[in-house]
Fold these 2 entries.
Entry 1:
Amino acid sequence: MDSRYVQQFKKGSLEKILLCLIAEKETYGYEILTQLNTRGGAVLGYAREGTIYPILYRLQEQGLVKTRLAPAAANGGSKKYYSLTGKGRQALEELTSFWQDYARCVESFIQSWKEESL
């Protein structure tokens, strides 16, 4: 299979997945990356900081997530924590609803194809 198609499909899902992770709890970049790779790395491919931070910045610019800085215990610096805004929660609900309809639609085509090929 041509990996371009798989990459495009994964790319389109990442924004929604990051919103889901942030909706679970206020979190910071490294924790998001760790959760993404632990829970989805085998299927999605293992993400790097250069993949998720541009998406996080875009979500912030769109007003879907907000950030706050808090002192980091380890090095005396600070961590940027992400949480959903009301607009972000609404967008996630809309995206989730669309995804469920989309998945059912695609699954119906797959199921039909499987039945036809028997």
Entry 2:
Amino acid sequence: AGSDLRSGRVVNIQTAAQLQVMLVEPTEFDEVKEIAQQLNRKITVVLNLENCAPDVSRRILDFLSGAIFANHGVIKPVAKLTFILTPSNVTLMGNLLNDLESNGFSIDR
């Protein structure tokens, strides 16, 4: 059940440096390990928890907060139930959300 991350596609954002961003919409806690592995690979993750039960969302956020902490990264909310998780090699600045939207992501603001 955990190997079927919805919309788990990686998109290259054209910037001064190449940035890989993955949009994930987990519905089960079993999917969290694969998301953490993306962070370990230095891939930025946009995490949408809109289709996830509140108790599962909390567990997912708790687990990924630990993964982010261990990787010296950052987790920031970008919408009500959507977060951006950046590894240590990525600094959020400027208008990253517009860059994401122009590359096919739909971000609710």
